[in-house]
Amino acid sequence: MVGCLMFAMVGTRPDISYAIGIVSKYSQSPKRIHCTVVRRIMRYLKGTATYQLYFSSTDGVNKLFAYSDANYAMDIDDRKSRSGCHVLFNNGPITWLSRKQTCTSSSITESEYIDASLTTKEVVWLCRLLKDLEIPQHIPTFLFYDNQAAIRMVKNPEFHKRTKHVDVQFHFLREFQSNHKILITYVPSQDQYVDIMTKPFPTEKFQRFRILFVLFQVLNEWEYWNIEGLG
Amino acid sequence: MAKDRFQKPGIDFTEAFAPTARFESIRAFLAIAAAENMDLIQFDIKTAFLHGALSEEINMEQPRGFQVPESMNKVCKLLKSLYGLWQASRAWNPRFHKFLTDHDLGVSEADPCLYCDHSSPKSMILIFVDDGLRGCTNPSKFMNIISDLQKEFDITFGEAGCYVGLRITRDRVNRTLYLDQTRYMFHIGHRFGYDHCHPVSTPADPNVQLHSTFNAD
């Protein structure tokens, strides 16, 4: 059942990626509470089954934008952080992921930094894909971010006693920043909609952020069946 | 159907996986198609796996009803792949790759399932084993490959509607494109018995925290 939901998530539903991420961890030995959580996702999908991802070309600038955020030590079992990222092309959602970080970080800044480097990997891959499709990205990709300290950490490559333990694998982000492939930009936390991929939210805020995932309800269920026919 | 249970790894087959397009590539493809107002066609190659050439030597019993009476103790050596062989999908991929590269389509470095033409009218093809999606800005060039495909293989094609489970709805005038899995959602809802449940507004409850040491069953 989680596998079925996962397919929906990777196909068109970034909004359930956090919920899927936390339950899939327990699919080895599920308890009753985990089943309740899965049931809740099903009930949510039931209400939003006709939601559609939207691709447009209104701006026509063929640019990539990335949003990324991390939730520090949200996993109760091993205190690892969860990172979320969302990459848009022409305002159309291309990539999203909500992933538990592989290493434990000792500060919020560190987890955000690791998260930014994960997002950079996605952006680099997409840039290559777009180059193959004859849409090379000449201007740097904007990476929106809500942690000032992590931005400072990327921009000033200084060796600091609080960051000396951060693994080398995450520092390649600095290289991309310095050769202008990526431009890290600050976005206030209340506008950082990728938050819904890293933690649960109450209804009102969730719905406000969901729209920013370019996920809309175009048809309601009744209109859908009128068009598609009862198949 | 071949008897795949008798096939041994390393001897009768080495690699069994065929590359499939990533969902990210599909979405990037569709985003570009929407922005450039491309014509989109989806095609499906019938009995695709029978076209693949085998690199390993595989023998099979003579099929029942088609035995040659004077050489009953002989076996058939397979030159092309059959459905049910482990490597059927793997063997199909290079065959199709050759066809596309012969038609001036280059394979993308980022995703081996994406082929694009580097000449001026932009054209591209995305393959998902035997399902293909074709996009092109130039209508006359658009049908060339499709008609060549028809000559080479047996294909069915039509306007892009439902590609690997993603329903594509387009508005060509406003250059917009919608992508949904509504049918799939209803399908899994039905399969797990959620036809008549009460919908909720968020997928995760902020008050529930999961950890692995629950004492309750």
Map the helices and strands.
The complex is a heterodimer of chains A (231) and B (217).
Chain A: H1 2-12, H2 17-24, H3 32-47, E1 51-55, E2 64-71, E3 82-89, E4 92-100, H4 108-132, E5 141-145, H5 148-155, H6 172-178, E6 182-186, H7 203-212, E7 215-217, H8 221-228
Parallel strand pairs in A: 2-5, 5-6
Antiparallel strand pairs in A: 1-7, 2-3, 3-4
Helix pairs in contact in A: 1-2, 4-5
Chain B: H1 23-35, E1 39-45, E2 53-60, E3 76-80, H2 88-102, E4 106-107, E5 114-117, E6 123-128, E7 131-136, H3 139-152, E8 155-159, E9 162-163, E10 166-171, E11 176-180, H4 182-191
Describe the structure in your own words:
- The complex is a heterodimer of chains A (231) and B (217).
- Chain A is of the alpha/beta class.
- Chain A has two domains: 1-53, no CATH class; 55-213, Ribonuclease H-like superfamily/Ribonuclease H (Nucleotidyltransferase, domain 5, 2-Layer Sandwich), CATH 3.30.420.10.
- Chain A contains eight helices and seven strands, in the order αααββββαβααβαβα.
- In chain A, helix 1 (2-12) runs antiparallel to helix 2 (17-24) and helix 4 (108-132) packs across helix 5.
- Chain A is globular.
- With 217 residues, chain B is α+β, with helices and mostly antiparallel strands.
- Chain B is 24% helix and 26% strand.
- Chain B contains four helices and eleven strands.
- Chain B starts with 22 loop residues before the first helix and ends in a 26-residue tail after the last helix.
- In chain B, 34% of the residues are buried.
- The chains are: A alpha/beta (231), B alpha+beta (217).
- Chains A and B meet through helix 1, helix 2, helix 3, strand 1 and strand 4 of A and helix 1, strand 11 and helix 4 of B.
- Strand 1 (51-55) of chain A pairs antiparallel with strand 11 (176-180) of chain B, so a sheet runs across the interface.
